[in-house]
Amino acid sequence: MQRVQRWLAAAMLVAWCGMWGTAAAESDPTDHARKCKAELRELVKKCVGRNNEIARKCIPRLKRLIKEGNKEEARALAERCVKAINQNTDRCLEAIHRLCRRCVKHLKEEGRHEAARHFVRLCHAAIRTVNHSREQAIHTIKRLF
User: Fold this and answer.
1) pLDDT over 90 for what percent of the chain?
2) Residue range 12-33, pLDDT digits in tens
3) Is the Cβ–Cβ distance between 83 and 55 less than 8 Å?
4) Half-sphere exposure of 4 (CA within 13 A, CB side)
5) Which of these, 13, 37, 11, lies nearest to 24 by C-alpha position?
6) Three-class SS string for 90-127?
7) Is there a contact between 118 and 24 (Cβ–Cβ < 8 Å)?
8) C-alpha distances in angstroms, 97 versus 4, 75, 88, 117?
């Protein structure tokens, strides 16, 4: 099951990164837009990876506690893991919003309104991806009970 979840997370990330397409990158005449896109892409990869890492580290410990009959202790650990995933995701979403505001503002100041609209769409996709990774990681933990 974990292999399937890792595969799904990787497929989701590859699909999301595919939205960046070479045509969009080639149509950006300034280096600033490319840097913003690259920064957003790396931020999403880091956030999704961290959520997956938190869940991956918690699951074996949770399984062991449940197997040993320590359900109360397992539930407490699960709560801490879910809290860590939520905190990571919230920090990531704040960072994405800051990056998006900064980049969109800069693109609009340059008069590149279409590029700004495109970047807003990328930001919305990034937010959906990070939120989906949160839901997936939490679901992985909760289904153990």
Assistant:
1) 77
2) 555 545 544 444 444 445 688 8
3) no
4) 3
5) 37
6) HHHHHHHHHHHHHHHHHHHHCCCHHHHHHHHHHHHHHH
7) yes
8) 30, 33, 14, 15
pTM value is: 0.79
Q: How many CA atoms lie within 13 A of 92 on its CB side?
A: 29
For residue 19, the SS3 value is: coil
Instruction: For the chain, give the number of residues.
Output: 145
Q: What tokens does 12 get?
A: 């989701």
Tokens of 138: 């939490």
The gap between the terminal CA atoms of the chain, to the nearest Å, is: 15
| Structure-token pair, residue 97 | 């919003």
Domain locations in the chain as residue ranges: 2-9+33-142
Q: Identify residue 42 by its one-letter amino acid code.
A: E
